[in-house]
Amino acid sequence: MKVYEYLLSYQIKPSVQRIAIMDYLLKHHTHPSIDEIYMALCQDIPTLSKTTVYNTLKLFVEHGAARMLTIDERNACFDGDTSAHAHFQCKVCGKITDVPLVSEEMEETKRLKQKGYRIEEIHYYYKGVCPDCLHANDN
Asked: pLDDT at position 139, please?
């Protein structure tokens, strides 16, 4: 699905800036911050401002087209993948990676729904040291 249609599917009116920001989120699974997105796109879109990036990401989150991650207390990061999954943040390099949910976590969600709860957000965060940083310390 093209980014234009993707935005329309979330009832978001596409604009040049919105298409560029969503395209960046969908292509870069690095969980970028507002600053990272701005720096990546400002060369190609000289009229882009950090305020526009912030407001656009806020709109995406409100419409369910993206998720805001607050794993790191210092930075909000954004994820274009809205499927159910967890995140792992390395305490050494700071990298955030996607982690599949295990069946126990999915079963707990089903149990809550069966008891009448309406689940609007699920946040699974793991923190530790990634394999790359562990291997770097071994050498």
From this structure: 60
